[in-house]
Amino acid sequence: SWDPSSRILEWQLADVPFAGFDLRFSVEPQATGDWPTNVQAVADLIDGFGQPDRITFPVPRVQVIAPTPTPSPSPTATPTPEPAALYLPLLLHEICVPEQRSTDAVLVLDVSSSMRGAKLTAAKEAAKAFVDLMQPARDRVALVAFDHEARLASPLGSDLTALRAAIDALGTRQGTAIDQGLAAAYDELRSSRRRPDATPALILLTDGQQPDGQSAILDLGGRMCEAGVQVYAIGLGDAEAVDFQLLRRLACRPAMAFLAPQVGDLRRIYESIAAEIPCDAGLFWGRR
Question: For the whole model, what pTM was predicted?
């Protein structure tokens, strides 16, 4: 709103979107020369932790140049330039403290027959390394395993010892139903065990493809990302063998898809995901 008496332009915002927004205004020059666009620009806000804060923005300056009259015995008027929009820089001071945020994560593991042996052993160890980085006081983790069908091997909970035992108990069977694994994980993230104040995350690991279910996979991924679930995808093996391009489209952002050419790469990937979830770039403007 604009108050002519005080010459103050003010915006009042609530429920600021994570995706960001633009605030714009235009000014009409009244004289030539070097001028500031405004006297002062500040933002009074309440941050994500409920604390008041104020941000003072730098004041841009513009050079106003008048059109040159046409030199002639009988001067003629020159057209007035069209007003142009001016854009102010926006400075945001955001702090994310991982220890102050909680996570509800679902590990979705491919246990098809192609995962038998060293692959499954490495997948189990990497998944347990992820679990070891969780804090029972604030984090919950679930386990979904899939082959030709999906099953909830361990529901969302803070009993990480029981979760490790469920991971160790996994065995392989025929089939690769990635879409069913994703659907089972999404169901768990919509269950009563999911906490509204926790960051929901899904981490898929697969070494295969599902040629007849790609549309279902991408549809589920899109719906989860729109619902605020942080969807990560890990392909184990050759990029073509695991259809890594599909995994990049499934993840909420291409950077949230990882390729592990060797089983030894899995632990590092899981650990990096565990560190990223609490302060994901999609939730905090300062990391975009």
Answer: 0.65
